[in-house]
């Protein structure tokens, strides 16, 4: 039983050594998918699947900290997820609240909530904002925690802010339409001021983005992994990083 574990550890170490700092992505986004399917595999409850997924998030951020990944965006809860059955949603919101507390205590990232926070229960809103304030000086990656997030809604909110700002300046609608630019929208996104993601990873074998960072991912590299999120291993992450390092990015070319 020990030999496979030793060989696995050797392979992981060897894989990590093939990656150099200048080949690593600056910003990694992850769609953490597969918690419910993982639970069904083991005859566990959906809540247990989400708890396993939360534990994996903490582990994943440790890997990012070790590898010096600068920015991480995790898609935790979409606006559509807010329509899940009441019992499941209540448990999931509690798990996310506890996760924020754990990450705050872990001290390995700087938390920034991104999403329509007003759609969330007050307790979770308060915890997200408190965690953001308490972790602002932490080392490790800048963590965008996408909760109550929808890519289309983010763009709508950005355009709304652009128009509101223009109105405050006394600009006419016609003038705004004439002057509106890509930079105007980018400057009002939830992730404003941050670099766009270099690499987007989705677990569970699904090959779609489900509205995740729709604007920001225009030139991102995508990596789809068969592992369900709670089963996602460090070696899976290293393989994604190796795949990214081997690609020649063209940025629309």
From TrEMBL:
Cofactor: Mg(2+)
Protein EC: 2.5.1.-
Catalytic site positions: 33, 81 (proton acceptor)
Pfam families: Prenyltransf (PF01255)
Function of the molecule: Catalyzes the condensation of isopentenyl diphosphate (IPP) with allylic pyrophosphates generating different type of terpenoids.
NCBIfam families: PRK14828.1, uppS
The protein's name in its UniProt record: Isoprenyl transferase
Naturally occurring in which organism (per UniProt): Kocuria marina subsp. indica
